[in-house]
Amino acid sequence: MPAGAQDAQAPQQKPPQKNEPSLGDLGFTPAQTQANAKLQARLNKRTHMLKVHQMLGIITLAPMAATVIVSSGAKPKHNHTVNGTVIEPSSAGVDLHAALGSTTAVLYGLTAYYAIAAPKIAGVKPRGAIRLHRDLVWIHAPGMVLTPILGGMALNQENQGEKPHGIAAAHSYVAWTTVTAYAASMVAVSWPIHWKFWEK
Q1: What DSSP state is assigned to residue 123?
Q2: How far is residue 131 from each of residues 6, 26, 111, 136, 197, measured CA to CA in Å?
Q3: For residue 80, is pLDDT > 50?
Q4: I need a surface site. Which of 15, 62, 116, 153 has the fewest CB within 10 A?
Q5: What residues have CB less than 8 Å from 76, skipping those under 6 apart?
Q6: DSSP designation for 51
Q7: Residue 129 neighbours by CB distance under 10 Å
Q8: CA 185, CA 66: separation in Å to the nearest integer?
Q9: Cα–Cα distance measured from residue 75 to residue 88, given in angstroms and rounded to the nearest whole number
Q10: Alpha-carbon gap, residue 179 to 53, rounded angstroms
Q11: HSE (CB half, 13 Å, CA atoms) of 13?
Q12: What is the pLDDT of residues 91-143, one digit of tens each?
């Protein structure tokens, strides 16, 4: 057979393959394979609300940090140069501390609202860093409630000429625990390092 004739022959075509299995063959109903507009709307709303939650959480950090920074001007100090006499805080220092604390509490409440009110998706459980972020709420949420209460008790005792005592004396410790837990919850979802044990 001449070489030209061999090249002119068309390659033989393979017989058509049987169609691959459809989603129906795999057990999915037509309703399951169609787009779920209601679920997509819930996902969109959840995404939006959690983005607002994240933004408010970052904004809340500013007055929270400022409250801690000015806290030294809201408590009595000992003047060691004059026989250890106690210098009472100025009313301006106390008012600034209280105003920043109140602002923090309001923003914290708004931040929490957007996380709580966001639509839940059935069957979806938080994992890893998100789970840690959520679990730290059990520390900083009670702290955000207790801190201003204890601060008010401590201020009342100071106004009566008493040194803060009892549970009121724990105001600063509760505040620092709250700030630490809140900061840790933010780091958990924003820091680029992910520890493996979080994924268990």
Answers
A1: T
A2: 68, 34, 17, 9, 12
A3: no
A4: 15
A5: 86, 87, 88, 89, 158, 163
A6: H
A7: 19
A8: 19
A9: 7
A10: 18
A11: 3
A12: 787 889 889 999 999 999 999 999 999 998 777 787 888 889 999 999 999 99
For the purposes of burial, counting CB atoms within 10 Å of the CB of 97, is it exposed (0-12), middle (13-18) or buried (19 or more)?
buried
> Which of 133, 121, 111 is CA-nearest to residue 188?
133
Looking up tokens 């109903």, which residue turns up?
A: 29
The answer to whether 101 touches 67, Cβ cutoff 8 Å, is yes
Q: How far is CA 97 from CA 36, 103, 117, 160, 174, in A?
A: 50, 10, 30, 19, 16
SS3 content of the chain, % helix, strand, coil (to 5): 70, 5, 30
Amino acid residing at 7: D
| DSSP state for residue 88 in the 8-state scheme | P
Contact 112/50 with Cβ under 8 angstroms?
Answer: no
**Identity of the residue numbered 138:** W
Question: 173 pLDDT band (50/70/90 cuts)?
Answer: very high
What is the value of pTM for the model shown?
0.70
